Task: inverse folding
């Protein structure tokens, strides 16, 4: 059996090598290159493909995989929004993801960024670096005094809820699906509007779908409390960036922590050498603000998560090749 793993980064390679040692019956070929029209030919002769990338898995790539007789594509991440579902189905390609490599990694980072915003630590870091050791005017707020509105209560949302509760915050949540335990606790509100109206902090944990594209737009911001905090470690497309900038300018939004950004592909996880050379003016507008924390989609990026992404995706691909089954199959 042969599996080709695309887009293998230096931090993933030791985990892939270890998996390969532990699975001597599998021939593992890996490349740092991403899976696209220029590299897809390297998959010829493989039984399965393992990948992670944010650029699209296009119809032409999937058609090529289909023409090589490859039926199994295993992603090392959660989101499947960049897979051309029609082309995958047309070619009979089954797709697996890694739904839970470490929900805690993302939840912990989300709350870390919120605490930095509330305690004004970026401002104090800047002041200290400039020799200004005064307190005022940067007085902080306490999370235990706030209501956090969690949008979507999948694994990551639930991990975040546990941490928010640990801080003593009041938590409310919105989701179409109600988790039985959270339901018992009476955490759910009926509509997104109710969440917007009641929350001091909005913590987004939803996947990207057609329905929730730009869900935080001018109308949504208008329904929120003045001085709300926005956290988006989920998908950039959930937030209308222009609307967010307006809401920051007006003071409607007191602060935002954005680990995702709608135009992040090709920008995040790249080194441009200097701030000025970052090729996105809107992103730089956000990055320049002390009350906005932009991070380059790193909430997931821990040793445990990276190990699990590699192991679970390789296990899923092997299982599909051997049995045609995997508990990580995705409905596209
Ligand atoms: C995902 O797993 O879908 C993520 O958003 C993390 C990714 C950058 C590896």
Result:
């Amino acid at each position: 059996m042969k599996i080709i793993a695309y887009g293998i980064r230096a931090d993933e390679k030791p985990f892939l090598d270890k998996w390969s040692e532990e699975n001597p019956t599998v021939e593992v070929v890996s490349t740092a290159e991403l899976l696209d029209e220029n590299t897809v030919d390297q998959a010829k002769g493989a039984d399965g493909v393992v990948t992670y990338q944010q650029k699209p898995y296009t119809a032409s790539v999937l058609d090529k995989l289909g023409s090589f007789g490859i039926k199994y594509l295993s992603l090392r991440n959660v989101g499947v929004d960049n897979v051309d579902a029609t082309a995958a189905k047309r070619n009979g390609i089954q797709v697996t993801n890694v739904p839970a490599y470490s929900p805690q990694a993302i939840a912990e980072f989300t709350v870390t960024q919120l605490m930095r915003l509330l305690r004004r630590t970026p401002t104090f870091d800047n002041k200290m670096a400039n020799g200004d050791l005064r307190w005022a005017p940067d007085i902080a707020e306490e999370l235990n005094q706030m209501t956090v509105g969690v949008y979507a209560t999948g694994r990551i949302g639930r991990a975040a809820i546990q941490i928010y509760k640990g801080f003593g915050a009041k938590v409310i949540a919105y989701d179409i699906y109600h988790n039985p335990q959270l339901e018992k606790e009476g955490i759910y509100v009926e509509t997104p509007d109710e969440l917007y109206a009641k929350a001091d902090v909005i913590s987004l944990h939803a996947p990207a779908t057609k329905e929730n594209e730009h869900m935080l737009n001018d109308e949504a911001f208008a329904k929120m409390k003045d001085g709300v905090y926005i956290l988006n470690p989920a998908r950039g497309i959930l937030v209308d960036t222009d609307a967010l900038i307006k809401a920051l300018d007006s003071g409607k939004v007191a602060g935002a922590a954005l680990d995702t950004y709608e135009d992040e592909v090709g920008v995040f996880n790249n080194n441009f050498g200097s701030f000025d050379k970052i090729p996105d003016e809107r992103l730089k507008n956000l990055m320049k603000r002390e009350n906005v924390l932009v991070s380059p989609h790193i909430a997931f990026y821990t040793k445990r998560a990276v190990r699990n992404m590699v192991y679970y995706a390789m296990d899923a691909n092997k299982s599909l090749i051997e049995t045609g089954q995997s508990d990580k199959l995705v409905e596209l």
Remarks:
- The pocket of 2-OXO-4-methylpentanoic acid is lined by residues 52, 77-79, 297, 300 (CB under 6 Å).
- Residues 303-323 form the longest helix (21 residues).
